User: What shape does this take?
Amino acid sequence: MKILGNYPGVRLRRNRKYNWSRRLVAENNLSVSDLILPIFVTEGKNKIEAIKVMPGVFRYSIDKLSRVVNQASKLKIPLVAIFPHTSYKKKDPYGSEGLNEDNLVCKAIRKIKKNNPNIGVMADVALDPYTDHGHDGILKNKEILNDETVEILSQQALIQAQMGCDVIAPSDMMDGRVGVIRKTLDENDFKNVQILSYAAKYASNFYGPFRNAVGSINKLKGNKKSYQMDYKNSSEAIREVALDIKEGADFVMVKPALPYLDVIKLVKDNFRIPVFGYQVSGEYTMIAQSIKNNTLKKEAILESLMSIKRAGASAIVTYFALEIAKKLK
Ligand code: PBG
Assistant: This one.
């Protein structure tokens, strides 16, 4: 009999035989410190609204926000990310509400920094929660204007920093925005505010439930392919990341995560900067809705998160953060 490798002397199954042994040789691990919790906020009072398309995820009015932030804080989740559900009457073509110091995000940042000073707060920089056309920038003659948008975004970032935001996260995919935001923050004495750049953000079909959650889905005119990345590309992600690092990003995001594990790995292998993965709303619903058995579902969530870590992510934005933090405890 022809024997491949060194079998029967070598048997890889030996290391897998016992739980203690599998633990000893585990190459990757997931801990609560790897989790970033997205939180949706909404107008009004006394509201904890279920989001129909994302079972298990809620929108909180500002007065109820502490409930979920306290939970995250107790579980030692390091960072929460705030996303606003803005009422349509506050939206306009320029996303002016994004520059209102009393908008939902600003209120949320102030509240969290006051009540939970030990948890990090991150806020997206982009205009889509505030524009009546649903795009991340200014729309003119069917074009999303780059430079004009970047000016507004840098003001939005500055206001969020003034409110106490720890991590500014440009998710708009305009060219050059990280540099302009860094400069604006520095000139205004916010040298220590971090920038998490959504450097490789794809024009993905997995954002649907999120757009529903923030109320932009029925309003979006066209698609975002003229600024978000084409899912056929990965070398281009390296250029995006290289530029954002030069412009001053402290960490970079790859988004979505599961269909883009190759991109996470590519970024990890090419740069010495922390890379995060965003397990987006469509990934969440696929897992949350397809597995009914709770134990099996939790295992599947862990498997998906571990794969993102294995690809090279140092942290993961996930709507499963609370559930998994409890399980990891
Ligand atoms: C918008 C933004 C999006 C998400 C986060 N910020 C959607 C989009 O680009 O249209 C998606 C997150 C998710 O699907 O979970 N700046």
Notes: The radius of gyration is 21 Å. The domain at 29-328 is CATH 3.20.20.70 (TIM Barrel). The CA atoms of residues 101 and 159 lie 7 Å apart. The longest strand covers residues 35-42.
